[in-house]
Amino acid sequence: MKPFKKIHYLSIIGILISIILLSLVLIQLDWQNFIVTLKSVQIQWVIASGLFMIFGIAIRSLRWNVISGHPRREYRYFWKSMNLGYFANMIYPARAGEVVRMIAIHRYVGMPQGKAISGVIIDRISDGLILGVFILLLLALKDTRFTWGIAFIFFILIFIALSLLLLSFILWGDRLHGKIFRFMKIGPKKIANQLEIWYTEAFDGVQIMRDKYRFFIILALSIGAFLADAICFYLLTLGFGWELPFIVSIYLAIFIQAGTVIPSAPGYVGIYQIACVLALRIFGIDDSAAIAYSLVLQVLGFGIFLFFGGVIVIRDGFSPYMLNKDSTLNSNR
């Protein structure tokens, strides 16, 4: 795997998207209101918000551990790999951190690359499906503030399609194997062989999802991770002195998580800003104040991800800039 040998076209697209979104929000920014809003932030609520952000990372690490089927004693390696992924997203554009955590877990616990890929895909789809669940909850509550838009419809359709593909792969991947790689043989043999190895490893890895008990554990952890994010966002609104209903946090979680699916510049610059503006505007928060909120949230995330990721990089000798090397991590097991 050599994902960082050169800048991928998705990185360029992601940076352009971030520049466009950031320009849209900055054009209408009232700097005086922005600065006044920032000065009003109460640090104790920011710290509380940060603790729930860390809790959300811990839950997602455990969910990934469960998805992989590895013993719970290896949880710390999933925690490390997850934080390395977040750390890389602060450095690289286009969600390159997903690739980093695949490589990290492969090196930490010797997980086959195909299984690492399928595990991360299931992990991401789990987040998407829970977004769908909470969107349906808003509809069930008949919240008049929520309206279907093209973006939400497109988002839900994508995750339904991905979920059906994953289900088909889990149930019939072995039958599809021959048909798929019959056509792959017309291409370069080396690439076809590597893809076939990954396919086989991925299929073996996802068979653990046939366990209904494990499925419900993953579902519960996914809901827990979403709610941890929502509480994090709500506590931060308290830090700004806003008296808003808790449901604002559901909107923030939906908009922000949906936005992070889009390719962007490192750190989701522009994505957080437009997501917070759209979500908080529903509750009457001025756009400039919403941008101030997004900045504090983003800086908080930067600090947490850079701290944990940096400690792991230094302690374990893992550098995102050395991902093309075949050396094994010098981790203390």
Structural commentary:
Residues 1-7 and 322-333 have low confidence and may be disordered. The two termini are 25 Å apart. The protein is an all-alpha fold and 333 residues long. 74% of the residues lie in helices and 0% in strands. Helix 1 crosses helix 11 (271-281). It has one domain. It has helices spanning 9-27, 31-39, 43-68, 75-89, 97-109, 113-140, 150-184, 189-206, 212-239, 247-259, 271-281, 287-316.
- Derived structural class: mainly alpha
Percent helix: over 70%
Please tally the β strands and state the result.
0
Distance between the termini: 25 Å
Order of helices and strands: HHHHHHHHHHHH
Shape field: globular
By DSSP (H or I, 4+ residues per run), the number of helices equals 12
**Largest sheet, described in full?**
none
Number of domains: 1
Q: Kindly estimate the percentage of residues that lie in beta strands according to DSSP.
A: under 5%
What Rg, in angstroms, do the CA atoms define? 21 Å
Mean of all residue-level pLDDT scores: 81
Low-confidence stretches: 1-7, 322-333
